[in-house]
């Protein structure tokens, strides 16, 4: 479904973010780090549309404090409709976080480092 209507795109993004972070209380309870700040600082770097973009220093500062493998356990198919797991791994690795090859983040299997 392709659309260029800005209102529709904005609505889809809001609904997607609500789906994406609807279960965040469980993530907050189980995973180390500031998951809410991770969402605020990094969401623009991991959403599906667009190319991979080097994350900001603010995003990296938060990523380094979050248990990425723990957060990956909570990735569901609705999240994967909105968030690129490939970009998630790219952001984490670009920020210097070890993401081991073969680890699962949702249905995505982390490839070896290039």
Q: What is shown here, in short?
A:
Keywords: Signal. Residues 1-29 form the signal peptide. By secondary structure, the protein is mainly alpha-helical.
Spatial order of the strands forming the largest sheet:
1-2
Task: Count every helix, treating DSSP H or I runs of 4 or more residues as helices.
Answer: 7
Report low-confidence residues grouped into runs of 5 or more: 1-20
**Overall strand count:** 2
- Major β-sheet profile: 2 strands, antiparallel
Proportion of strand residues:
under 5%
Mean pLDDT: 78
Classification by helices and strands: mainly alpha
Order of helices and strands: HHHHHHHEE
Radius of gyration: 14 Å
How helical, in percent, are the residues?
A: 40-55%
Please give the alpha-carbon distance between the first and last residues. 33 Å
- Overall geometric form: globular
Protein name: Bifunctional inhibitor/plant lipid transfer protein/seed storage helical domain
Keywords: Signal
InterPro entries: Bifun_inhib/LTP/seed_sf (IPR036312), Bifunc_inhib/LTP/seed_store (IPR016140), NsLTP-like (IPR044741)
Pfam families: LTP_2
